[in-house]
Amino acid sequence: MKPYGKSSDLAQENSWNSRAVNRVPIYRIPCRQHSLLSVDTTCAEYTRFVSYVDRALAGNPDYGFTPYDAMIRYSMCSIAKYADFAIAQVDSTVASEESLIAAGQTPDIAGDSYLYVGEQIASLALTYDWAFSRLTTSQKTRWKAYADQAIYNVWNPTQANWGSVSKPWSGWSINDPGDNYHYSFLQATMYWAVASQNQQWLDFIKQQKAPPLCAYFAKLPGGGSLEGTVTAHP
């Protein structure tokens, strides 16, 4: 089982993610307390989103649907079926990844130089955080071990491993604040740092990764990217 639907436009999905949490910076989201109960339930966008999530629960997910979406819906209404659906989806993916790791193989989350680690760990982290009381002790332990290893591997490419098997990778863009891969790595790390309440990762982001990111965007007062619209990954 592949980890969730892969978005064809990660930047667009990241933009939706930021809007979905009321534009509150991730490091300010109150762990296990955040709610979106104040959303406008009369607007067309709300109705479309609810239908989008309900189709997934009915077994007909749209392209790009992730457990993250189900958790956003859960936070809007506090209806347990949405959280339980997200939990089941995340747990199934983690179990599938664990099977690959146990067989000495590389889990899917490491594919394409960890490009999709951001959206995948964001789904896991949001579910872990907002549905924490609904998780079993085993789920909490397994999900944490999986996410911890994924984040470690991203930032330590030559020492990356899964299980007892060394799985080094290129380290593409881990120090490039202008690259979309880098944004995925930051997304994964920030979400998991908050969800797991890991001060080490929070400090890592604030002290080592946020400064060069801010410096990069300071060169773009009108927005855009120094890389242009076409990039290549060797």
What is this structure's SSE topology?
Elements: H1 10-20, H2 44-57, H3 67-77, H4 80-102, H5 111-114, H6 117-130, H7 137-155, E1 161-162, E2 165-166, H8 180-195, H9 199-218
Antiparallel strand pairs: 1-2
User: How many helix segments?
Assistant: 9
> What structural category arises from helix and sheet content?
mainly alpha
Give the spatial strand order of the biggest sheet. Answer: 1-2
User: What distance lies between the first and last C-alpha atoms, to the nearest angstrom?
Assistant: 27 Å
* SSE order: HHHHHHHEEHH
**Rough outline:** globular
Mean pLDDT rating: 85
- How much of the polypeptide forms β-strand, as a percent range? under 5%
Provide the helix percentage.
Answer: 55-70%
Count the E strands.
Answer: 2
How would you sum up the major sheet?
2 strands, antiparallel
State the low-pLDDT regions, or none: 1-33
Describe this structure in words.
With 234 residues, the protein is an all-alpha fold. 56% of the residues lie in helices and 2% in strands. It has nine helices and two strands. The chain has helices spanning 10-20, 44-57, 67-77, 80-102, 111-114, 117-130, 137-155, 180-195, 199-218, and strands spanning 161-162, 165-166. The protein has a two-stranded antiparallel sheet. A hairpin with a 2-residue loop joins strand 1 and strand 2. Helix 3 (67-77) runs parallel beside helix 6 (117-130), helix 7 (137-155) packs antiparallel against helix 8 (180-195) and helix 8 (180-195) runs antiparallel to helix 9 (199-218). The protein is globular. The chain starts with 9 loop residues before the first helix and ends in a 16-residue tail after the last helix. Residues 1-33 have low confidence and may be disordered.
